[in-house]
Amino acid sequence: MIVRPVRSSDLPALIDLARSTGTTGLTTLPANEERLARRVGWAEKSFSGQAERGDTDYLFVLENDEGLVVGISAIAGAVGLREPWYNYRVGLTVSASQELNIYREIPTLFLANDLTGNSELCSLFLRSDYRSGRNGHLLSKSRMLFIAEFPDLFGKKIIAEMRGMSDEHGRSPFWESLGRHFFKMEFSQADYLTGVGNKSFIAELMPKFPLYTCFLSEAARSAIGRVHPDTEPALAMLKREGFNYQGFVDIFDAGPAIECETAKIRAVRESQTLVLAVGTPGDDATPYIIHNRKRDDCRITAAPARLAAGTLVVDPLTAKRLRMGVGDNVRAVPLTASREAQ
What we know:
alpha+beta
């Protein structure tokens, strides 16, 4: 398997992937051919250095050895520099009266743009029949190795918005208790509109004043900052890389926005540049993510490898996938942290 930049020839495969995601769950990959074609075009400009950071969209695909595209992931260079980026910040309001012997702490939601300018990990999706082995880790963590190689392209902090709670029909309890009253549309429709870039209605319709969560339903309150069960593995993986929740949630489904300083991400911090050697890694080889250190011709794979005197020893198939040979420089990092591998 190899992770590489998206190409215009991948558009039919992206449409198929978008249709397989269902009606909700991946707002940045809508099954809209015009929108996806525009996004692929911006990705090609981003990888070739023809876009400003506020417009960059590094969209990657996961491809098997037969050339079949089975997954996607992306990095947005900076959020909110071209149009407002909204989250709710979960705060606290205290009401107290000594005379009445009343003291209450009420969680409160504040509409905020605090995450503006950060880079974002987004658009992660893998075909269900390929969700095994190292594929999911490679697809997600390859982005971090790309960031490690080109840190000047990204912000000092990386964020990731995680999918919030919804039922088997795609209904969000948070949306039903809050958003529906202001937007008068289904959650899936609002989710789709943001995915295709129509976000102005948020500013036009969303209340600007703090919202007291005590007015929400119990189901909505319990959904704040929680992820959908299908998203729990992705959340756990990002936490092991150093990401954590700092009190920002999505305005539609209240899923958490997690964040980490770029330099403190495990895969960024522990990655190193090495000289490639081709041979036999051995039975005790460690799985590595390996990047060919290129930008528009980027190729990243995961494979067993062995460190030996400043070189990274890989097998011939891995070198072939990277399109690299003996003596070439690569950037590499163990696929998982040592405590994660145990």
